[in-house]
Amino acid sequence: MKFIFVVPLVLSLSASRVMCQTSPDPQILAEINKARAVDNHTHVPKVVGPGEKDDDFDALPCDPLQPTDPPLMARPENPKLMDAWRKLYGYKYNDRDPAHVRELLATKQRIAQQQGDKYPAWILDQLGIEYMLSNRVAMGRGLEPPRFLWVPFDDALMTPLDNASVADNPDRKFFYQREAGLAQRYTKDSGLTSLPSTLDDYINKVLVPTLERQKKTGAVAIKFEAAYLRSLYFPESQPDEARQIYSRYFSGGTPSKSEYLKLQDLLFRTTALHAGKLGLAVHIHTGAGCGGYFDVAGSNPSLLDSILNDESLRKTNFVLIHGGAGPYTKVTSFLLSKPNVYTDFSEQDALISTRALSAVIRDWLEWYPEKVLFGTDLAPGTPEIGWEEIGYSNATTGREALALALTGMMADGEITRNRALELARMVMRENALKLYGLK
Question: What is the pLDDT of residue 67?
Fold first, then answer.
């Protein structure tokens, strides 16, 4: 009974402290705003010419899916999006009058034409970002290193066979079609016209060479969007059984769902192992996702326990992208205790308010501040609200939320002012510089 009464009291006092903190400390916010950030997660588009389309900004784009309503903070009326117009393009108005928006679009087009291939870097300068990790199938025009760093998608490496049995809802049918095309591309790029006849040959002639090419081409990490395709539970598999499944279906036929998942379990672990050997971090989408059929339970980062506890994978660094956004941020707090696990708050700075995000960040900082990374998850949008405006809004929310979290910790006597400023620099850039070996 004592426990029952004490816990609500503690939670109530903690909530009161959070709610009393209404604005960030000016010095802390200033330190954060001047930081040349490392943006850990984006889907930045390349520069395109007239009539050209960029189809490489995401292996599994959400736009073709059955539409679902965005949460409040991600809707066009978010005031920070108009602030972006003012900051980036000198927008003079306090409304969205169609004539004013047309003027805005003309200004955007003029600046983009003036900057040419330097336009993406120009936007980075406006956002205060030094390095941007770019989740893309392939890099492209205007996205040159060192400021734009490649993070390729590698779910296709664990989907070499016919995907019919695992494409079990409308969203996954579309996503697995995309993965099939990318799998064929990786096979062709490995110098093969068809799949090898054995699993060992597939690993040695397709999987490993693909990772090596990605590393040689400048990748600093690889990305798995597996939560859109299946559960994140990858139990330890039996190599002999996986070999039999591959041999049975590599030339045709459709494995059952249970068979295919067993093969995927092994290929995921194998990819993570070789990525670690090459010094590539493994990014994994966790938490909320797009689409009306998204399996929220399957995106719980705790499902990765058997991966994160695998001794053979301890030389591979894992980054829990989005930090379990939505229901699983507390799970992420504990998983940061693993020596090779990191997280970022990308996507959360688009979906929830500054105050709500500050509570998430504070919780992580009170666990393992060395493991927390800044990120925006910016991506292409509409002509009026594109990746530029999304990036500005999300970056502003993230910076303010970090400042608010550190201010609360300092006000409660958990850290000194000097430590707060140190943590600010760590989250905004220093943790990522160390993780990826950047200068």
Answer: 83
